[in-house]
Write a structure and sequence with these properties.
The structure holds 2 protein chains of 2 kinds. Chain A is of the alpha+beta class. Chain A is 28% helix and 35% strand. In chain A, strands 2, 3, 4, 5, 6 and 7 form a 6-stranded mixed beta sheet that branches. Chain A has a 4-stranded antiparallel beta sheet with strand order 11-10-12-13, sandwiched between helices. A two-stranded antiparallel sheet of chain A has the order 8-9. Chain A starts with a strand and ends with a helix. The mean pLDDT of chain A is 95. Chain B has one domain: 2-Layer Sandwich (Ribosomal Protein S5, domain 2). The radius of gyration of chain B is 18 Å and the shape is globular. The chains are: A alpha+beta, B alpha+beta. The interface between A and B is large, with 41 and 49 residues.
Chain lengths: 272, 249
């Protein structure tokens, strides 16, 4: 059951007032413009045991995504497609508010929104991940460990997943009779497009992208918009507040512009 | 989601015979659950969903209580027999997510500050599912909350729009959801002109995105009228004068 809750991050009243005053003047407390992202660091292949991995730092939000490939049965209704499973965990080391245990609804939402971006953009050509149609397919597990929380986990996690997939090497598997045999060769993931999410927060009448932890504690509503080169692939409004139609259309537009910048960086990084 | 067959025929008719701008048949009955403080039963196409509200009431466990406002709790659940193949009754990740977005879609409409230290529980049970069950669930839950006499800023209405055969259509059904190009569920408070839920899966261009959002909102406005009518029907029966007043607004 989903229950309303408060942000565990506490922002003092005076600080809130400061933030609102700054926003009214078009400024943010950390000096950023409304459509500025915090510094983004992406490192590829950080885990050698994984088939692909990436470590992303967005501000001080830090996520490690690792890919493990195995084989299994296809999903029902998707018999001729490989299986893709994205999951996320906020590790107990990530913040004083994080606790060990099964993922709560916020983390489930996080993983599902990131999954939706990859899936709906058809970033991976899953039809190329089939060994025996309807019976044996590649199963791609993308597991995300959130190591440090500092606001906007949606984008940090999404970039980590996309970067890990871009850098991943797929083991080439073969069927010998009923058995799956690893040929110890690898090939690139069948990538078709690069989905990039941009998350914006509304505080009062202001909509700003990539909210930091204090902004996250003060926000009224949140919107995550995933785009690829051609257009939109996934959207998720989150948190308890609402948006006007104009705010949404504007956020959608800036998600495309900003998404293009991040996409260019990822392309440059993976081309090396 | 790669489309395999045409979902709109040469006459512009969809798989269930509707035009692009046509809503499925929507019927709402208020007060169907006797024990609940408020309830509503909605039939939205083939969806059959019952929503029940309990509260404001004491919060259990007590540490969940908030000193300055009410806690809203929401559960979206699908009955095992509601789908083509039996659904495991344990809450799936999808249901956990929908429970969350549903709560967040309803919360902006409620004056939770009027009921400090209390809880309001909203249960949405999908008895038979079709496409767009989260929208139908939100519409029913919002009527049930009004029926429970909770102070509200507006009713939350909900409707989806999507892309089928490269065309933007209103109120996606099950087949269109599975085989079509995009699905965008929207919840909207028509009086306050605020969007309280927006999701999208599937590809849309910038123009299609804007068109889809506008179309979904036009659907919400139709659902809004049906919601109001359903409440009027329960509380004022066939007093036509009042009904006309609503229609004028």
């Amino acid at each position: 059951m989903s229950a309303s809750r408060r942000s565990p991050v506490i922002v003092e009243h005076l600080r809130k007032q400061q933030m609102w005053d700054a926003l009214a003047k078009g400024k943010r407390l950390d000096g950023r413009e409304f459509d500025d992202q915090r510094p983004l660091e992406i490192e590829l292949d950080v885990i050698k045991k994984a088939n692909g991995s990436a470590r992303v730092k967005l501000g001080h939000s830090e996520v490690i995504a690792g890919i493990k490939v195995s084989t299994g049965e296809p999903f029902e209704g998707l018999e001729n497609k490989g299986a893709l499973i994205v999951s996320a965990e906020v590790l107990p080391i990530a913040s004083p508010h994080a606790e060990p245990g099964p993922p709560d609804e916020e983390v489930i939402e996080l993983a599902r929104v990131v999954d939706r971006g990859v899936r709906e953009s058809e970033m991976i050509d899953l039809e190329k991940l089939v060994l025996v149609p309807g019976k044996v397919v590649y199963t791609v597990f993308v597991d995300c460990s959130i190591v440090n929380t500092d606001g906007n986990l949606f984008d940090a996690t999404s970039y980590a997943v996309v970067a890990a997939l871009l850098s991943a090497k797929l083991p080439v598997l073969k069927m010998e009779g009923e058995k799956v045999v690893d040929t110890s060769e690898t090939r690139d993931m069948p990538i078709t497009t690069i989905p990039i999410s941009i998350t914006a927060a509304r505080i009062g009448d202001h909509v700003l992208i990539d909210q930091g932890p204090e902004e996250e504690a003060c926000m009224d509503a949140r919107i995550t918009i995933t785009t690829n080169e051609e257009g939109f692939c996934a959207v998720q409004k989150g948190f308890t507040g609402s948006f006007t139609v104009e705010q949404l259309k504007k956020a959608a537009q800036s998600a495309r512009v900003k998404g293009e910048e991040v996409r260019a960086r990822l392309k440059e990084l993976t081309a090396k | 989601m790669t489309q395999t067959r045409n979902l709109i025929d040469e006459n512009g008719k969809r798989t269930d015979g509707r035009t692009a701008d046509e809503l499925r048949e929507v019927k709402i009955t208020v007060g169907t659950v006797r024990n609940a403080d408020g309830s509503a039963f909605i039939e939205f196409g083939k969806n059959k969903i019952v929503a029940a509200v309990y509260g404001p009431r004491e919060v259990h466990p007590k540490h969940m209580a908030q000193p300055d406002r009410c806690v809203l709790r929401c559960r979206y659940h699908m009955s095992p027999f509601s789908t083509d193949t039996r659904k495991n009754p344990a809450p799936s990740r999808r249901e956990v997510e929908i429970s969350k977005v549903m709560r967040e879609a309803l919360e902006p409409a409620l004056m939770l500050e009027d009921y400090p230290r209390a809880a309001i529980d909203v249960y949405v049970e999908v008895l038979q599912s079709d496409g767009g069950s989260r929208c139908a669930g939100i519409a029913a839950a919002s009527v049930a909350l009004a029926d429970a006499g909770i102070n509200m800023r507006d009713l939350v209405s909900a409707c989806a729009a999507g892309k089928v055969d490269e065309q933007i259509v209103l109120d996606i059904n099950d087949t269109e959801d599975k085989e079509g190009g995009a699905d965008m569920p929207v919840a909207y408070m028509p009086r306050l002109e605020q969007v309280t839920l927006l999701q999208l899966d599937g590809k849309l261009s910038q123009e299609q995105f804007n068109e889809c959002l506008d179309k979904a909102i036009s659907g919400c406005k139709i659902v809004y009228e049906i919601q109001k009518q359903a409440l009027m029907q329960k509380y004022f029966g066939n007093e036509t004068e009042l009904k006309e007043e609503v229609a004028v607004q």
